[in-house]
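Quiz preparation item.
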């Protein structure tokens, strides 16, 4: 099978590419670094020639609702339009668990808009909703640390390894269509602040992790565990401690 991965160099996309390659599939890793811009459409039609399934793991790199929504909807419409022209059979879209349960959080509202655009067709669509990645506290620390201080939001989450998400995306892409939406999560509930402190200890840094209570309804939802999976979600390992023991921080910190 020929599989195209949009965002193929990103946190999850690289694992979807790796999983597909290891399984013997022909893989097209699409990103701007490979000459394909899914938002503008540059290089996209040619990249999708002969492709059977598209996996979309793209991210616009912003939490602004307006900018993120524009990015996600434009990318999704392009994947549908160009994919249909090239005879693609299915689109698999990566999304996030709990979008409806975080009111007023612009990035989540943008992801809901992406899901709506994906389901609008014309290609058949599977949506894979994942919880926050094990990589998430590492990314928060990389962005938020100022000198010795790192403010980290107070959140109850059930994180999952990005590698496992990539593997499930591949399974969804090549398997039978079993419903429209699948939720996946890691095996254990965690506290984001505690996870960030574990990362700091692992890296032997003198960073002080300061709990940040996000204001408003969205912050209250984060603290109450609104981003945890619902019953029936698929649980995949490893847990955070196992993941942390083998983590390659050089690829996550810049």
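Solution:
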């Amino acid at each position: 099978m020929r599989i195209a991965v949009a965002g193929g160099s990103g946190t999850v996309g690289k694992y979807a590419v790796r999983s597909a390659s290891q399984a013997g599939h022909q893989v097209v890793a699409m990103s701007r670094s490979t000459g394909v811009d899914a938002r503008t459409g540059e290089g996209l039609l040619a990249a999708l020639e002969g492709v059977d399934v598209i996996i979309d793991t793209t991210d616009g790199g912003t939490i602004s609702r307006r900018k993120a929504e524009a990015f996600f909807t434009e990318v999704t419409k392009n994947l549908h339009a160009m994919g249909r022209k090239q005879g693609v059979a299915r689109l698999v879209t990566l999304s996030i668990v709990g979008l409806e349960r975080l009111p007023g959080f612009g990035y989540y509202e943008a992801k809901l808009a992406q899901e709506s655009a994906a389901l609008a067709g014309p290609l058949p669509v599977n949506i894979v909703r994942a919880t926050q990645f094990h990589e998430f506290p590492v990314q928060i620390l990389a962005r938020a640390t100022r000198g010795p201080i790192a403010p980290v939001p107070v959140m109850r989450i059930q994180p999952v390894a990005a590698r496992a998400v990539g593997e499930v995306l591949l399974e969804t892409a090549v398997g039978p269509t079993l419903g429209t939406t699948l939720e996946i999560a890691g095996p254990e509930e965690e506290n984001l602040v505690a996870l960030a402190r574990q990362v700091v200890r692992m890296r032997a840094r003198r960073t002080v992790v300061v709990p940040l209570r996000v204001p408003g309804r969205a912050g209250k939802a984060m603290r109450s565990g609104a981003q945890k999976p619902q019953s029936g979600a698929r649980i995949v390992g490893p847990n955070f401690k196992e993941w942390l023991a083998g983590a390659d921080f050089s690829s996550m910190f810049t």
